[in-house]
């Protein structure tokens, strides 16, 4: 009996040590402890909070949750760079005020154009080509462009603590999904490489493609028809459409993720987990909530987190590193403090 108790104690200690190692980019603060406790309770058979394997679906926002969204979201930066790349071959664009604002780096004017202007930039750079051609453009951009502040390639700037969290959850039998306002075709190019999330587990904004027969077979051509913006209250709609079941955990960073967290928290069958990433580190990343540089406003989410007991990650206090130094070697950005 004594040997059995000793063995059980050793196994429990090993399990705790293993999980701590998997989250090595996290400081040992209440945020990390809350994650580990929920996972341990959800995966321990006999626990009142046990969640069966076939119900362990968890959802993550992308912009600001898995990678930066400041000073511009990466997809908007891609659109800006594509406008500049294509402009010499598009004389019909020369009298367009929005295009000229992009070419003159007048981001204030771009921002002032509002949602209508952003949709126009997306239409100019995300439609009118085959899905394969678009994926290749994104892949080439990822390979050749770098974040101006860090000097790191965009596809190497996933937050190390969140990438570790994705691995930790999958090791414990959870199925990880991205549910983001970013374009579904844009994110699918890099989701598996960056996060280990296959394309079929990526949900995002989309529009309908057109199918046609060609001399070489078939093709899908991107259009702006039926555009669906996967943000705010539309996130639960998209989760139901693509996943077919309610998640047991949700991770976001802004009020645009609030409906997704509320939908998850209302799961009637299991004890769920909700987490918001709060950008508080101006030295290693950016600090914002009510006044973000571009997107990611976080006001109502913080209020509800305090009321409902959701976990809020303070990037400055809770994360040892922001970016993996093996992938992003920029000085003073993302380094261990």
Automatic annotation (TrEMBL):
Alphabetical list of Gene3D superfamilies matching this protein: HAD superfamily/HAD-like
The record's annotation in PROSITE patterns points to: PROKAR_LIPOPROTEIN (PS51257)
The entry's protein name is: phosphoserine phosphatase
Pathway info: Amino-acid biosynthesis; L-serine biosynthesis; L-serine from 3-phospho-D-glycerate: step 3/3
Gene Ontology molecular-function annotations: L-phosphoserine phosphatase activity; magnesium ion binding
- InterPro entries recorded: HAD-like_SerB (IPR050582), HAD-like_sf (IPR036412), HAD_sf (IPR023214)
Q: What reaction(s) does this enzyme catalyze? A: O-phospho-L-serine + H2O = L-serine + phosphate; O-phospho-D-serine + H2O = D-serine + phosphate
The signal peptide annotation in the UniProt record is 1-18
Which source organism does the UniProt entry give? Yokenella regensburgei
What keywords tag this UniProt record? Amino-acid biosynthesis, Hydrolase, Magnesium, Metal-binding, Serine biosynthesis, Signal
Instruction: Name what cofactor the protein needs.
Output: Mg(2+)
The GO biological-process annotations, alphabetized, read as: L-serine biosynthetic process
EC number annotated for this UniProt entry: 3.1.3.3
Q: Choose one Gene Ontology CC annotation of this protein and give it.
A: cytoplasm
